[in-house]
Design goal:
Blueprint lengths: L4 E6 L8 E6 L2 E7 L14 E4 L4 E4 L1 E6 L19 H14 L5 H13 L2 E9 L7 H12 L5 E7 L10 H10 L4 E5 L8 H15 L2 E5 L4 H17 L6 E4 L9 H13 L2 E5 L10 H7 L3 E3 L16 H11 L5 H10 L2 H7 L14 E4 L4 H6 L4 E6 L2 E4 L15
Parallel strand pairs: 1-4, 6-7, 7-8, 8-9, 9-10, 10-11, 11-12, 12-13
Antiparallel strand pairs: 1-2, 2-3, 5-14, 14-15, 15-16
Length: about 400
C-alpha cells in the first residue's frame, strides 16, 4: 500500500483560491480549501506532504492517439525519407520497419518513460497489424507497457495500416489481436485506402460486435468524401448501439469547408456519441474546437507518430501538443486555451471511457502539477512539470528535488 500523500496549496481549473488534495490508496480521498482545519482522522499519521505553492493541478494528461510501435525514440538518429503521398508513406514505413526487425520494446519503453515525465498518465496507441508483422507489434507494445505499468497506462488499437481489404490475411490477424486482449479495433480511410467503404466498415464494425470492443478509425480522406464517411460511421454506430464507443481520428474533412458544410455532420456525430481525435500536426486540417464543443462532439488530442519513419519530430509532451493545437486553432483567450487543455484531459478521458478520471474525491490519483499559477500561462509558456503522480505515487517532476517532509497528521 502506498503511503498517503498530501498536496497542499494547489489551484484547480475553474475554481478560485487554493486547495489541498489528500491522496490515499491510489485515490483522491479529500479536496478541501487550503488552510482549512480537517479532523485529525482525515489526515493519516505519516502522511507525506508537498507544497505546490499555488501551482495549477490537472488530472493526468491523456494522449488519445499515437503510434508507439513505430517510434525510433532512443535510437541513433536516422535521416527522414520523404514521401509524396499517403500510399508512399505507408509503403516506405513498412519496408523500413521490416528491414529494421520490426518494433522494439526497448524503444517503446524509453518513449513511455519520456511521456510519463511530461505528465501523461494514459495513452492510446494504434499498433500495426498486417501480414508482414503479424501481431508482433501488439505483443511488443504489451511487453513494454508492462515494464512501466507503475508510470503510465497503455491501451492498444489494432490498426490495419496497410488497409483491411487488400491482403487476405489482415482480417484474421485483426481478430487475433483482439483475442490477445486489444480493446479497440481500428480502420483506415474506408474509401480512400480500400476503395470500398461498405466492405471496410462491415469488417471493422463486425469485429467490434463480435469481440465487444471499441472502434477508432483513421480518416484522412478530405472534403465531401471525408464528411460522407463520417456520416457512414455515425450511422453504423447507431445501428449497432455503439454510442460513446466510437472515435474518428484525424477527421481532416471536419477542418475543411464551411460551418454550414460541417454542421449537419457534427450534429450526427454528437447525436450518436462519435468522438473526434485530432493531432494538429504540420499543415493537416484541424477540426475547429469551438464548433465541435458547441455541437456537443467530444474532441480529444494526441501526438500521432513521434520521431518515426513518418515524422522526425515530437517528444511525447502533451502540454506542448496542446499549445500547438491551440495555436493551430487560433485559440487565444484563456477560456479557449482551457478548452484546448480539456482535449488532453477530461474530454480525452470521456472519449476513452477512463474510470475514475478527475480531481474530485474518489477519482484515480493520477495528476500533474504545472509550474504556473494560471492554466493559460502554463500552456502558452510551456512550463515544466512541477510534479507527476500516478496511482498516488510521485513519479517525476521538478517538485521532487527539494526535501519532501514526512510528518504526522498535525498541521
Amino acid at each position: 500500500m502506498k503511503p498517503p500523500l498530501l498536496l497542499r496549496r494547489g489551484r484547480l481549473p475553474g475554481k478560485p483560491g487554493q486547495y489541498d488534495l489528500l491522496l490515499t490508496d491510489s485515490r483522491v480521498s479529500r479536496v478541501s480549501p487550503a488552510g482549512s482545519a480537517p479532523e485529525a482522522a482525515e489526515v493519516p499519521a505519516g502522511v507525506r506532504r508537498i507544497d505546490m505553492g499555488g501551482r495549477m493541478v490537472l488530472p493526468g494528461l491523456v494522449n488519445a492517439h499515437c503510434h508507439l510501435d513505430k517510434s525510433l525514440w532512443a535510437d541513433a538518429w536516422r535521416p527522414h525519407t520523404p514521401s509524396r503521398s499517403l500510399a508512399e508513406m505507408i509503403g516506405n514505413e513498412r519496408r523500413e520497419r521490416d528491414e529494421a526487425g520490426g518494433p522494439s520494446a526497448d524503444r517503446i519503453e524509453a518513449l513511455l518513460r519520456r511521456m510519463s515525465a511530461a505528465g501523461t498518465t494514459h495513452v492510446r496507441t494504434h499498433t500495426d497489424v498486417d501480414p508482414g508483422v503479424g501481431v508482433r507489434g501488439v505483443t511488443t507494445v504489451a511487453e513494454a507497457a508492462a515494464r512501466v505499468a507503475d508510470l503510465i497506462t497503455v491501451e492498444q488499437v489494432a490498426f490495419p495500416q496497410s488497409g483491411l481489404l487488400g491482403e487476405a490475411r489482415t482480417g484474421g490477424l485483426m481478430a487475433e489481436a483482439l483475442r490477445l486482449g486489444v480493446g479497440t479495433v481500428g480502420g483506415l480511410d474506408p474509401a480512400g485506402r480500400d476503395n470500398d467503404p461498405v466492405a471496410h466498415l462491415d469488417l471493422v464494425f463486425g469485429l467490434a460486435e463480435r469481440f465487444g470492443v471499441r472502434v477508432d478509425i483513421h480518416l484522412h480522406d478530405e472534403g465531401s468524401l471525408g464528411r460522407w464517411q463520417c456520416r457512414l460511421i455515425a450511422e453504423r454506430t447507431a445501428a449497432l448501439g455503439l454510442q460513446g464507443r466510437v472515435a474518428i481520428s484525424h477527421a481532416f474533412a471536419l477542418g475543411q469547408g464551411t460551418p454550414a458544410d460541417r454542421a449537419p455532420v457534427l450534429e450526427l456525430l454528437a447525436g450518436n456519441g462519435v468522438a473526434v481525435h485530432t493531432c494538429a500536426n504540420f499543415d493537416d486540417p484541424v477540426p475547429p474546437l469551438p464548433e465541435l464543443e458547441a455541437a456537443g462532439v467530444t474532441c480529444a488530442l494526441g501526438t500521432d507518430g513521434i520521431r518515426d519513419r513518418w515524422n522526425p519530430y515530437g517528444n511525447g509532451d502533451m502540454l506542448e501538443q496542446t499549445k500547438t493545437f491551440a495555436q493551430r486553432g487560433s485559440l487565444r483567450t484563456d477560456d479557449l486555451i482551457a478548452a484546448a487543455v480539456r482535449t488532453a484531459t477530461w474530454s480525452a478521458a470521456r472519449s476513452l471511457d477512463l474510470p475514475g478520471y478527475g480531481l474530485t474525491p474518489g477519482s484515480a490519483a493520477d495528476l500533474v502539477v504545472l509550474d504556473g499559477t494560471h492554466l493559460a500561462e502554463a500552456v502558452a509558456e510551456h512550463r515544466p512539470r512541477f510534479l507527476v503522480v500516478k496511482s498516488g505515487a510521485v513519479v517525476s517532476g521538478t517538485g521532487t528535488r527539494p526535501a519532501i517532509a514526512a510528518e504526522d497528521g498535525a498541521r
